[in-house]
Automatic annotation (TrEMBL):
It holds the Pfam family Astacin. This is Peptidase M12. It comes from the Bacteria. The lineage of its organism: Bacteria, Bacillati, Actinomycetota, Actinomycetes, Mycobacteriales. Residues 59-196 form the Peptidase metallopeptidase domain.
């Protein structure tokens, strides 16, 4: 397995604060199960803490529970072989699940892919992509080409597609985060990736709210999990991370979007895509 220091990691994009509540509303309209169950959490918080922003942050961004079919538009290439290769890896999530990505030449496509050099690997999370202006990317695959190694297609394209399907980073589970030494992590990611302390806190040291998670065991070899070196872990044991979709990833996708049900592209997509 490659060293984490040699691997360019994903930095998921977040919507501006002004769009968070509208995006949360969209997520709940598409899939009511996205609505956060906050009563046990809010009972312990000071009065006035439960704001629209608080609720929005705890809203999951999964698509319709029956399945998800999304159109994919490429913003900076007409190369048929490259587009087909990327989409084939996006559809690696499809076996046993009602998940399908298909190429579109229209900016109205829900998923819009750029390959902007230097902009890193990222995707907006799940239904949040419907709140991105139609001429802007919802995913970036920094400098991907037909010369990019197949292992990177598996690691990066499938990971970013997981975000598009609504899957957050697995290493942000509370039990993983609480085992990270913050000072060592900040120093490590500054040296390895040039991240500021604020970026490391957001991407590695801020755990997901338990109430926003579907009850599944923590999977440290998930495609959605960063590799973390033992040098930054309190117990000295590295988090292996995932280089491809594993069995637990696949079972989760199949449970969330079961293949036996049929669905169509979400009717709100075209309206929401022009929200800006």
């Amino acid at each position: 397995m490659s060293s984490p220091a040699t691997i360019k990691v994903c930095t998921p994009k977040s919507l501006p604060g002004t769009d968070l509540f509208a995006a949360a509303k969209t997520a709940v309209e598409i899939n009511p199960a996205n609505r956060p169950y906050v009563r046990p959490v809010t009972a312990l918080l000071p009065a006035g803490t439960v704001t629209k922003e608080f609720i929005s942050a705890m809203t999951t961004k999964y698509w319709k529970s029956g399945g998800v079919h999304l159109a994919v538009h490429f913003l900076d290439t007409d190369a048929a072989d490259l587009k087909a290769r990327i989409i084939s890896h996006m559809n690696a999530w499809s076996p046993g699940a009602n998940i399908k990505f298909s190429e579109s030449r229209s900016n109205d496509a829900e998923v819009r892919i750029a390959r902007t050099p230097g902009d890193g690997y990222w995707s907006y999370l799940g239904t949040d992509i419907l709140h991105i202006a139609a001429d802007q990317p919802t995913m970036n695959l920094d400098s991907f080409s037909m010369d990019t190694d197949e292992s990177e297609y598996k690691r990066v394209v499938r990971h970013e597609t997981g975000h598009t399907l609504g899957f957050p980073h697995e290493h942000l589970r509370r039990e993983v985060v609480e085992n990270i030494d913050p000072k060592k992590a900040i120093r490590y990611f500054l040296e390895a990736d040039g991240w500021s302390a604020a970026t490391t806190k957001a991407q590695v040291l801020t755990p997901l709210e338990d109430s926003s998670l579907i009850a599944t065991p923590t999977d440290t070899v998930s495609i959605m999990c960063y590799q973390l070196p033992g040098s930054i872990m309190r117990d000295g044991r590295p988090v292996p991370g995932g280089l491809d979709i594993d069995d637990q990833d696949r079972k989760f996708a199949q449970t969330l979007y079961p293949a036996k049900l049929v669905t169509t592209t979400h009717p709100v997509a075209k309206v929401a895509a022009h929200a800006h």
